[in-house]
Amino acid sequence: MFTIGEFSRLCCISARMLRHYDAIGLLHPKSSGLENGYRYYDRSQQFEIEKIERLKDYDFTLEEIKVLMPLSKEELTKQLTLQLPKLLAKKQHYEEMIHRLEAELSHKEDCSMKKYHVITMSQKQQNVLFIKRMVNVYSSDFHQLAKDLQEKLEKEGLTRTGPIQICYLDPEFNPEHAMVEMQVEVSSNGADVKVIPENLCVTTIHTGPMAEIPHAYQAILRWMDEHPEYKLNGSSFERMIKDEHMVESDEELETAVLFPIELK
């Protein structure tokens, strides 16, 4: 048996962290001294420490690790397999962040200073085929959603007449749990086809990676501040004018951001 100090040195983990693991029920000492209250650890617990630290490296939270620790090898492998696409999505997010930082450090044009031409437009009535789903905005969920929408379009035998668009349905923005509809305009009615009535929108076009699209929203926010006679009136849209299948690089992507508005 080892004291908490000895065990922390042998496992290269702080005694403070071992006490925290004990407090949250993740890893308890093998025994505690009845008289002095000291924590004692067994050599076999080294393997539990190694497993916890490995799972932390895979970006699991301590609460998630508590659930993972007692799983069988087969069950744990399933959870690790599910974690991989989440890490790949975060990798892509950080690569895009690094790209933007490198561009700023090399004194290229700051994407936040791009000139956005904000206008109002009357959007005609649309018949849209749609799929409604909860997504993580920073993951690959949109790719799967687009694939499912295309399969649905083919199954229904409908003719596509416009670009794909994403409608954000939540009253507040939560990127990790966003309820959205992916829609595509079609020429006729069918199952899961609905009518979006004609409305007035404020809109601008963002050119470049989707990671930079918040700047287009900021441009619309500035326009709304300068035109207090209008108020928002409905869910926002992102319309893919030039999507990833139509361009050679993300710099050529074109996305229209639209907010329905009305006079106060």
Helix content: 25-40%
Shape: elongated
Q: Give the C-alpha Rg.
A: 26 Å
Class from helix and strand fractions? alpha+beta
Spans of at least 5 consecutive residues whose pLDDT stays below 50 are none
The proportion of strand residues reads: 25-35%
Total strands: the figure is 12
Overall residue-averaged pLDDT value? 88
The main sheet comes to: 9 strands, antiparallel
Number of helices: 7
Q: How far apart, in Å, are the first and last alpha carbons?
A: 74 Å
Order of helices and strands: EHHEEHHHEEHEEEEHEEE
What does this structure look like?
This protein is an alpha+beta fold and 264 residues long. Helices cover 38% and strands 28% of the residues. It is built from 7 helices and 12 strands. It has helices spanning 4-11, 15-23, 45-57, 62-68, 73-105, 141-156, 214-226; strands at residues 2-3, 31-32, 39-41, 119-123, 126-135, 160-168, 178-186, 193-196, 199-207, 230-232, 236-242, 254-263. Strands 4, 5, 6, 7, 8, 9, 10, 11 and 12 form a 9-stranded antiparallel sheet that branches. A hairpin with a 6-residue loop joins β2 and β3. It is elongated, with a radius of gyration of 26 Å. The mean pLDDT is 88.
